[in-house]
């Protein structure tokens, strides 16, 4: 029998995997970091920090390259 902590950790990991899979599909479709963040209702800074926190640095770089390779400062709204 699993504890509620183990169950919550598994669900959280599955949720992160689902979100990252969707973001990878968007990156392959040519979405920029800003477009992907806006679709999620987040800022680019928030999405970049979330991805870095979950060790998906390669995805951040790929999404930024889709924006032309220019890393726009977080205070610039798009």
Shape category: elongated
**Helix run count:** 4
Number of strands: 0
SSE order: HHHH
Tell me the helix content: 55-70%
The Rg value, from CA coordinates, equals 14 Å
Mean pLDDT: 89
TL;DR?
This protein is mostly helical and 78 residues long. The chain has helices at residues 4-28, 33-40, 44-53, 57-66.
How do the helices and strands line up, and which of them pair or pack?
Blueprint: H1 4-28, H2 33-40, H3 44-53, H4 57-66
3D structure, described in words:
This protein is mainly α and 78 residues long. It contains four helices and no strands. It has helices spanning 4-28, 33-40, 44-53, 57-66. Helix 2 crosses helix 3 (44-53). The longest helix is centred in the first third of the chain and has 25 residues, at 4-28. The protein is elongated, with a radius of gyration of 14 Å. The mean pLDDT is 89.
């Amino acid at each position: 029998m699993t504890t509620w902590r183990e169950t919550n950790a598994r669900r959280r990991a599955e949720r992160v995997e689902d979100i990252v899979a969707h973001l990878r599909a968007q990156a392959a479709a040519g979405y920029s970091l800003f477009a992907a963040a806006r679709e999620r209702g987040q800022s680019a800074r928030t999405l970049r920090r979330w991805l870095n926190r979950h060790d998906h640095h390669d995805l951040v770089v790929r999404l930024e390259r889709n924006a032309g390779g220019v890393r726009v400062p977080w205070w610039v709204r798009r």
